[in-house]
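Q: I have 175 residues here and want to know how they pack in 3D. Can you give me a structure?
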Amino acid sequence: MDLSMILDGVMIVLLATTIIYAFVLNRRLGSLRSEKEGLEVFIEKLGEATRRAEGSLGGMREAAEQYQTAVRDSTTRAEALRDELAFLVDRADGSAERLAERSSRGPDAETGQSNAGQSESGNSGSGAGPAANAAKPKRPARRAPATSASEVEPDGNAQQSDAERDLLRALRDAR
């Protein structure tokens, strides 16, 4: 066998392979041409869906900005309320401390009378009994509710809020 025959055989195989590949490629291109209209419709629908998605994103951005503003306003109000509550807690702590001091001094300290004042009047050891003690007020008279926030007690403190009065009343009842 001759070398030229071998080369011719290889060339025939390569040409046959090329013809088969060209035939397959031609079929694929033909199917692509036939589906060209369907592909164009798909591309148009995809473009329309993209435009709608962009419009929706714009609306979502606006809604997010509105919610962000609302949350920021709510946060600002919540911080103000937090600060106000902290102030009220501090005032309540101070009121509770003052109340604890008054209660630790005894019931006579609340009415402004001292034990020495009772002994001078002769009530402490005189046997006047419960009738004389019942006539004495054990607690100071209650104040009328504050009509404005600017009213001030004689000792310089602002009048008590409803919460402070309720706290004081509960502490008195607990004794």
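Q: Anything worth noting?
A: The longest helix spans residues 36-105. Helices lie at 3-34, 36-105, 107-111, 115-121, 130-135, 162-174.
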